[in-house]
Design goal:
Length: 69
C-alpha cells in the first residue's frame, strides 16, 4: 500500500519505490530506500512529514503515493 495511506505514528518498512528514474533517484537521495524503516510524523491536506533514517522529511501527496510499504 502507498505511504500516503499509513497512519500517523505507525512504523512501516519501505517495500519499493515506483515512478520514473528521476523520481526514484530523488527519493533515494532523501533516504527512501527499500528495507528502510519509515513512519508518518504528521499529515496535513495530503502532504506528510516523514521520519526516515533519523531525519524528518516533508513530502507531498504525489511523492508519498510512490513509496510502497
Amino acid at each position: 500500500m502507498p505511504l500516503s495511506f499509513a497512519k500517523v505514528g505507525e512504523e512501516n518498512i519501505i517495500r519499493k519505490i515506483t515512478g520514473n528514474d528521476e523520481v526514484r533517484r530523488h527519493l533515494e537521495n532523501l533516504g527512501f530506500v527499500a528495507g528502510a524503516n519509515v513512519s508518518i510524523v504528521n499529515s496535513l491536506a495530503g502532504n506528510v512529514i516523514v521520519k526516515v533514517k533519523d531525519s524528518r522529511v516533508a513530502i507531498n501527496e504525489d511523492m508519498a503515493r510512490r513509496i510502497m510499504i
